[in-house]
Amino acid sequence: MKRYLRSALLILPFLSPLALLSQEAPAPAPVTVSGQVRLRTELDDRGLGAVDETVLIHLLRTRLRATARPLPWITVVAEVQDARYLGSGDPSQGRGTTDISPDGLDMHQAWAQIDHPFDLPVDLRFGRQEISFANERLIGVSNWSNTGRAFDGARAMIHGDEVSVDLFAARLSAPVPGPTASQNLYGAWGNWKPAADMSVDLFALRDDNTTPVRRGEDSGKSVLGRNTVGTLLRGTFGPVNVELEGAGQFGENAANDSAQRRTIQAFLGSATITATILPESKTSLFVLGTVLSGDGSASDDRNETFNTLFGTNHKFYGTIDYVPDLSGNFGLVDLGAGISSAPVKGLRIVLDGHVFMPQRSSQEQFGSEVDLTATWRLAAPFELSGGAALFMPGELLKARIGDSARSWAFLAGSWEF
């Protein structure tokens, strides 16, 4: 699969002129412009900075997107993004007011797409693009982040009545334009919908780092070659929704280019059950359990810590974002429950709690957390949201963040046009 996806990455850009030969050329459509301005204020008492004190930070994200359809079967998108925190200007430049440094400016997306070349049920897209699958546990746009996430690569999106398959290849980073010491992501993600209330996802992913190991018995081999395979099952049974996930990781990796490689043997398992109890207000109760495997010993030849790859972690493991980052090689067991409701039109409130424990090496807890989040869509282009989290540290995190309860809160407004 890896070899074929690499070939697709090279070939897809050259298919556009061939696709044009099979189509008639109508008049070009006008360019449409859209965008977003999002401002978020956070009151952060997590104690993760260099100085352990409560901080107030204001995050600003501005996106301007141009979409052109020069032909009905071709779409071209260019999206510029400026992501910064307020006050990030150089204080020597008019105390920051005259600083025109473009440090926060980036091309967030720049891609072209060909729809149904030669009348085939496939769309081809290449360039810098957002990619997300299913619930975004492994690959997502990470919209909570002030910058978001985009991939440089190519995709073939195959559509059927019940089955869809997405093949993609992306270059994550490289010191030079060629493949030397590059990091890459390849994959195939399929979705089958046998019924309106049921879907099955199957996926196979590979991420690597082709930097060669410089010494030892692994000399010349890649620092990382990791494969992730799994499934996601979703079904609705009357007022109950069930979501089951499972994934395994295997391959080899080294901590750096001077270390010996270890065999990867890791797994993920998760289940979420949601029951609607008041349909008129969309009030639901939910329970969840998630396990990310941890490493039993850092000194053996196996790495058993599951890597969440490019997932949107903020939406899964508590909004205060302590885990899984601070769980290290212990792995993670997340047990949670909550309630969500939409008491009035446009307003959604979620209250949930989590207990975080290690999957390996210790019986002590990471801690417990309570989250409250509200989202209010006042009108189609404007959304106001806010929330707070309270975290009670367990023994495993007290050395890192102290033994007092930690808090975090935010208020955000997003305007789209």
Provide key terms for this protein.
417 residues; mainly beta; 18-stranded antiparallel β-barrel; 3 helices; 54% strand
Give a brief outline of the structure:
The protein is mainly beta and 417 residues long. 6% of the residues lie in helices and 54% in strands.
What does this structure look like?
It is a single chain. The protein has 417 residues and is mainly β. It has a single domain (2-416), classed as Porin (Beta Barrel). It is 6% helix and 54% strand. The chain is built from 3 helices and 19 strands. It has helices at residues 2-11, 16-21, 395-401, and strands at residues 32-45, 55-71, 74-85, 105-115, 122-129, 151-159, 163-173, 183-195, 198-212, 222-237, 240-253, 262-278, 283-292, 302-303, 332-341, 347-357, 367-379, 382-393, 406-416. The chain has an 18-stranded antiparallel beta barrel. A hairpin with an 8-residue loop joins strand 11 (240-253) and strand 12 (262-278). The two termini are 40 Å apart.
